[in-house]
Amino acid sequence: FDHFRILDSLWTVGNSAQEITNADYSLSVYPNPTTSSATIEYHLTGDVAADTKIYITDVTGRIVSEISIKNKDGVAVFDAAISQGIYFVRIINGNESTATLKLIKTN
User: Are 12 and 26 in contact (CB under 8 A)?
Assistant: First the structure.
């Protein structure tokens, strides 16, 4: 967990998504900003560890949601009753972590 990178410049304006793709994974969050729920799509190229999860944290680092994932490809819907604000989404797979995407919740 020594590397923490927040990506804010990869906005795809047409579908209000934020995404990152590299050789090891792809991760996207949409709609972003959202007024209710957000869809998180992911693809992992390596093996999926037993404790692999999508983590959603607030600006203080507090985990507001954990979503377990078991497959290399999938879609998760994040629809927790959260306050308006900025949140961060990342996947931790064993000792590896994806880059962190910013999710904005508005009213």
Answer: no
> Tokens at residue 41, please?
């799509």
* Torsion angle of the four alpha carbons 68, 74, 79, 80, in this order, in degrees rounded to the nearest 10: 10
pTM of the predicted structure, to 2 decimals: 0.81
Structure token digits, residue 80? 């927790």
pLDDT in single tens digits along all 107 residues of the chain: 344 444 444 443 344 677 888 878 999 999 999 999 999 999 999 899 999 999 999 999 999 999 999 999 999 998 878 899 999 999 999 988 988 999 999 98
